[in-house]
Fold:
Amino acid sequence: MLGFLGCREGAQPDPYRVATFEGQADSVSCLLAGDGSMVVVSDAAIGGVGGVYRFDPESYALTQLAATGAQFIALDDDFLVAGSVPGRFQAVPLFRVPLAGGELERVSGIDGVRSLATDAGAYYWHQRGSDGGIYRFDPGDGMLDLMFATDEVRGDLVVSNGWLYWAERQRVSRMPTSGGAPETLLDHPSEPTELSRPIAVDDIYVYFGVDTLTNPRLVAVPLAGGQPLEVAAVTRPPTAVAARDGFVYWAEGEQNRNEPMGGRVTISRRHRDQRPAEVLAERQNGVSSIVPEDGRVFWCD
Structure:
């Protein structure tokens, strides 16, 4: 199927499409570069055309930075850092490319990533297998460190104010980006739940989805730990979560579990201290990411 980049601006009643990705797009993810322009990664399915693109939200211009797709992306000053799981469509496992344009540079010694974050010039990712764990890599000195051995990370890695956050099957944890023992913020060992892939962090909470057959919901837990708070009851665990300026944004679908990218998808938001939620858009394709930006909300579907 095609990949799309959509937008809802201010009080405008209707969302609109700002970019279309030709070819067999398997997934599309997006985030904001430091100068306010959009960086979009389209991961091509077998036989499709993938690539890393820079999107200008003012002119809607798309500029290709690299002709290879990726599943995970992060920003490091003037670079886009991107990666894929091992063997994913023959994509480069982990690479970086200048946001201003230039040659793709492979980060050596890495076989593949399953989530990715950056902070102060260092790269963080999770990989599975016999060497499963959360790793830190400094491209300046080439040092690679295993920060925490685990094969249970199922969600995103998020860096915020010197802390690295992640979700496992039934646990939300954090640890200093400089290293140290992980702290458990939430643990439900007796509840038959599984936390959803996307998580988001603001100055007060970590937001994530809880997947149960009877009570899926969007939940927040304080950064210092404590009792979880229900942000919203949802029809399915969120496929995308974002937080900015006191608001939390999420996408939820009425998908069949065997067809995760089909069915109607609703993009909503609510202030963390207020109810009810506001529906921003309804889509027919699965939404893989949401980016709030100065009165506008972008998403990829």
Remarks:
- The first strand starts at residue 3 and ends at 9.
- Confidence is low (pLDDT under 50) at residues 255-261.
- The chain has no helices and 28 strands.
